[in-house]
Design goal:
- The chain has 262 residues and is of the alpha/beta class.
- It has helices spanning 9-12, 15-19, 66-74, 96-101, 119-127, 133-146, 162-174, 192-208, 220-226, 244-248, 251-260, and strands spanning 26-37, 40-51, 55-59, 81-86, 89-90, 104-107, 180-184, 212-216, 229-234, 237-243.
- It folds into 2 domains: 1-102 and 228-262, Rossmann fold (3-Layer(aba) Sandwich), CATH 3.40.50; 110-179 and 187-212, 3-Layer(aba) Sandwich (Rossmann fold), CATH 3.40.50.
- The strands form 2 sheets. A 6-stranded mixed beta sheet has the order 6-7-8-3-9-10, with helices on both faces.
- Helix 8 (192-208) packs parallel to helix 9.
- The longest helix is centred in the last third of the chain and has 17 residues, at 192-208.
- It binds adenosine-5'-diphosphate (ADP) and magnesium ion.
- Residues 37, 40, 42, 60, 62-68 line the site of adenosine-5'-diphosphate (ADP).
């Protein structure tokens, strides 16, 4: 459990933050967020707001800036301009570990489970950072159950299917007890039935754990299974925002997708 947990969010706000009108129902907010790589503007003046407990999908063609956006939120990259707020705090220049401590967690695009360790030992790694003794053991078993991997807890992670490894990673990211979980292409390289399983897992975690998600995904059929609300990024800018129905039926969105399909 993070130190900040249990504290009234209003109490955590500083006077300066109240003065700027930072809204604590908005778990994540970016203002004028911009990232340039040399002459390329990968993220261009983006204002994004995510509500507490929301399940948002961030879609867009390859190179749109989706991964860069997540990296700016986690602190893996420093913005060229603009600000990032998490639960009312300006985290723009905050160390990535401090962001994690405050309730931000991420599963990266590339899997990184320890293949020689058992599934349970993999889960133990994040959990033991925040709990010990019986509490730790209980959280480990809960995480295994949430991932649908309770019956595979003792096998080495290397023998899991690609889909199961991704589930394990999502569960490990969730085991840090975050308030917002960022997933970068959680179903990349998965079979159709595995995609459906991950979709169900994400929607039930969102509902049961009151955990907000930002899910980056290229596959619009997957997005349609999970999202309430979709943001379309194109050329580093927010191109559209709306319900999945509005987005899927939008001819301009179809055009950039067909233009950007691998
Ligand atoms: P997406 O995840 O939507 O496919 P990215 O955020 O990975 O897009 O990339 C957005 C743009 O920024 C692309 O043109 C990419 O080549 C460029 N880019 C991303 N990371 C870097 C980097 N570290 N250095 C230079 N250019 C980068
Ligand atoms: Mg990407």
């Amino acid at each position: 459990m993070s130190d900040a947990e249990g504290m009234d969010p209003a109490v955590k706000q500083t006077a300066a933050e109240r003065a700027t009108g930072v809204d604590t129902d908005t778990i994540l907010k970016t203002e004028g967020l911009t990232k340039r790589f040399g002459g390329l503007t990968a993220i261009d003046d983006v204002d994004l707001g995510i509500e507490a407990g929301e399940l948002r999908c961030l879609i867009g063609p390859n190179g749109a800036g989706k991964s860069t956006m997540l990296n700016l939120v986690t602190g893996a990259l420093t913005p060229s301009e603009g600000s990032v707020y998490f639960q009312g705090h300006d985290i723009t220049r905050m160390d990535p570990h401090e962001r994690i401590r405050r309730g931000l967690s991420i599963k990266f695009q590339v899997p990184s489970v320890y293949e020689d360790l058992s599934v349970r030992e993999n889960v133990r790694l994040p959990v033991q950072r925040l709990a010990s003794g019986d509490d730790r053991d209980r959280r480990i078993e809960e995480t295994l159950a949430t991932a649908g991997l309770a019956d595979k807890a003792d096998v080495t992670a290397g023998v899991l299917s690609h889909g199961e490894q991704q589930q394990l990673e999502i569960a490990m990211a969730a085991a840090l007890d975050p308030d917002l979980l960022l997933l970068d292409e959680p179903v990349a390289g998965m079979a159709v039935d595995e995609r459906a399983e991950v979709a169900d897992r994400i929607t039930s975690m969102n509902a049961d754990l009151d955990l907000a998600f930002v899910v980056i995904e290229h596959d619009i059929d997957f997005v349609a299974r999970i999202a309430d609300h979709v943001t379309v990024l194109d050329q580093g800018q927010i191109f559209r925002e709306g319900s999945i129905e509005e987005i899927r039926d939008d001819p301009e969105v179809r055009r950039i997708y067909l233009g950007g399909e691998e």
